[in-house]
Amino acid sequence: MVGGVPEQLALVEAFANTVDVEEGTDELTSVERFGRWLSAQGRDEPVAPADLDLAWQLRAALRLELSSHDTEAPAGEPTEVPGDHRAELDRLAEGLPLRARFTDGGVGLAPTAGGVPGLLAEIVAAMVLAERDGTWARLKICREDSCRWTYYDRSKNSSKCWCGASCGNRNKTRAYRQRRVVGSARA
Known about the structure:
CATH topology: Jann2411-like fold
Structural class: mainly alpha
Strand content: 5-15%
CATH architecture: Orthogonal Bundle
Helix content: 40-55%
CATH class: Mainly Alpha
Number of strands: 6
Number of helices: 6
Radius of gyration: 19 Å
Number of domains: 1
């Protein structure tokens, strides 16, 4: 585990969090910013504009997929994210240098190239393996619209919908105030 996230999902979580809604920052807005993010991940890879575009597309589809992992949306809200993000993930994965690997350590998926395409293939491989081992559905996007941070749900029944106490408290307080307003209007 890396910070409460299974090791194989740490890079996926970090990649999904290259956009920070609350801070208003995005590491995929330029080749230079993406290059700095890669360096912070210990990957000193040259970045071409096509790499940045591919990374942006993969992150967008990934975040839609992670949003669909919130199976307990509030009453009246859909639990499925609209759109065909799985078809988009499939299209993107098709072009990545990825193959099955059979080693003494076991069977897995591995990139067949380096650079940014290899890193993105590594992210897709982690997604596939997490789906297989049952941890994939626990990687989620915070339900709070002003947050939308990716987090790993370690709760026993995988029912968390907010990334942390502050988002949960903010939403619970908001719901409480709405109930009081509705209750006072009826009185």
